[in-house]
């Protein structure tokens, strides 16, 4: 059965420019691939020379995500989008954790594009997914973060529980070395202009190429869902 992803009407009314690029594929995850590490290190070096922390907000993909948070009633300085978190770590000299190939690929595409990206074990995610505004009662354990307050964040929910925001993904759907199929979201809050859709498509193409090259992606499905 094909996976269904819907956007709640009230969310779309607040954020009519939202689009998510979705990719799902069978993969063979790995611990370390030196060629991928070289690509990641090269990008980290470029980011490190890109200016101070205060310049991160000038990147349009990140600025548009921060603005989306504000529209939903969430402070982006307290709950930073994942793409911003990655850049801040690099510019503060903290480096990035190397977890596994899938996580590294998501980080690389995010650093290259500024889009916040969710990478999941597809077998741990339900078939019916709804994107909506987070509620006070939503229970969410972020990866490495413990309980996360997701009220007013963009929140993906399946039949069982919330599992993703652009700030953090949930512990129960994270990828591991035993992951056999992955589901990836590239979240865009850029205005729906032709050039911005091209940027998102290029990010999706980059993701697909890296997945094929480094984790043997196959049986690939990809599509877009928009407000």
Automatic annotation (TrEMBL):
One of its GO terms (molecular function) is phenylalanine-tRNA ligase activity. InterPro entries: B3/B4_tRNA-bd, Phe-tRNA_synthase-like_B3/B4. Pfam families: B3_4. Residues 63-216 form the B3/B4 tRNA-binding domain. SUPFAM superfamilies: PheT/TilS domain. This is B3/B4 tRNA-binding domain-containing protein. It comes from Porphyromonas gingivicanis.
